[in-house]
Amino acid sequence: MIDDGILKRLDRVQGMGRSDDDLLDSIKASDALIERRLTLRLDSGKRVQVICWRCQHSHLLGPCKGGLRFHPDVSEEEVRSLAFKMTLKTALLGLPLGGAKGGVPIDGSALSVHERERLCRAWTRAFISDIGPNKDIPAPDVGCGPEEMAWIRDEYEQLMGKSVPHVVTGKPSALGGLNLRDGATARGGKRVLDKLRDKLGLTQEEPTVIVQGFGKVGGQIASLLAKDGYRIIGVSDSSGSLRKSEGFDVDDLLAVKEQGKSFSGLDNELEAEGGEPDAILTDECDLLVPAALGGQIHQDNADDIKASVILELANDAVSADADEVLAKRDIRLVPDILANAGGVLASYHEWLAGKAGHEVVVETAEKSLDDIIDRAADRAWHMHKRAEVSLQTACYALAVEHLQQVARCRGLA
Ligand SMILES: NC(=O)c1ccc[n+]([C@@H]2O[C@H](COP(=O)([O-])OP(=O)(O)OC[C@H]3O[C@@H](n4cnc5c(N)ncnc54)[C@H](O)[C@@H]3O)[C@@H](O)[C@H]2O)c1
Asked: Site described as Important for catalysis, positions (predicted)?
């Protein structure tokens, strides 16, 4: 089952009285949850067994699309919920793709490059009959990147005996991947902020920002915001947090990450105040950007959040109990299905180019991403005001309406 938080949010949509109850019930279930056991041979020669999942939430809009997460805590329920979220995201954007997600409960960062390659090839062999360019197209997520996608594509093509570049997205650019200059997810998040900045009340000359998680998405959004005059006063990774009221030079933080270092113990080097990873979440700031994992803002800390706006780049960073508290406290939440939609938009363009057999044109993809995000942000804001619901409920309602319309056209509702 998908998690209670998503069910609560669907109840809010139901409460608006605009959607068909049968359809709402039917989308709560996934089309398929596939469980496979992989055997990974470690460099030491030892073999370990891992149970992993791929959830294909819905084929209603088109082939399923979604990331592959390598993280020790990933669970079947989380995979289901994230796949569901992806369907909402593609529906909100109006893309001809459904939602999927894969999870491998393993710490990718603890594996050698050879072990990661063997894991990806084993994963592809295990899921060979489930994935495909018109069926289910994986992409990177936490603990996974372009290299992993390259190995999956290579193994898939060897097994199928033909070239299928669009079986995955998020590949290295040499293999037809679309690498947007600023990173697609961060670009999309920044675009939403640009579109809604005044409406969200981010009118300070130099809004202060805290970024939780400094991986692919967190590093890129910090960089984009700093270039546009925001002041990054707090950052964290899984090892620790750093505060600096006068603001960080984001290039220094990115350089630290490029060297493979963690933030813990870097307070002197970066002339900052160090702390535990979660310490900065409740600090004073204008904008809080969770870009780590789900469930970071919950019932127990929602009352202490001091930001006035939250840009939810990590999926499910804010729990359903917490978003009620935040709404009561007038803290604006730009929900994940809008805030981090840039990633799937770039994936869509990479997939389309592979399907058509031509190179992906970065400028065209960027323009399309910006236009689609602008439109979704406008529609969500309009619904939020007109229906007097939170921006999050507005996004969910728009997504459900689109799914409903497609289901009717197909004779399924
Ligand atoms: N990569 C994408 O394009 C994309 C697209 C949509 C959504 N997302 C979501 O964005 C989030 C980040 O993804 P990513 O690709 O940057 O992952 P990543 O693996 O590159 O980075 C994750 C970061 O979070 C940090 N982290 C983990 N636990 C933490 C904690 N308790 N406190 C502080 N930091 C912590 C890690 O140290 C790392 O810096 C995820 O929730 C992912 O689902 C990513």
From this structure: 141
